[in-house]
Amino acid sequence: MCISKKVKKEESAHLVLDERGTVESALVLLPLMILVLSVLQIALGVLSRGVAGNSTQSAVIKSSLFSPNGASPLVLMRAEGLPRSSAIPLAGGGTLFLGETDNKAPSLTPLLPRGDYFTSVGISVGEGS
Fold first, then answer.
1. Which residues of 101-124 are buried (b: 16+ CB within 10 A; e: fewer)?
2. Would residue 11 count as lying in a domain?
């Protein structure tokens, strides 16, 4: 009975101390993890560009069409978080409003260490003078 316990103990110690397969799993898991994080980085970049573009366009339209208390659309755009905005008068009447903002998406992989910087632009045409 004592011999069988000793044999079982040696077998379990051998299984715990055996490190075969750790190098192979690391060689598979590291590139796989980089691949998954890179795909997530691309998806995050595409999504953040879409969301930033929509929010910039929304802020420009809201500022140019709805001006409460007679406030200037340019002031409203700056209040909405668009640091660079301009108004261009059109020849037939009306005004072309442009709003621009800088955005930064975070980095998920070491392949893009500083993150993704991009600019989103919104355009609206105001029919008044």
1. bebebebbbeebeeebeeebebeb
2. no
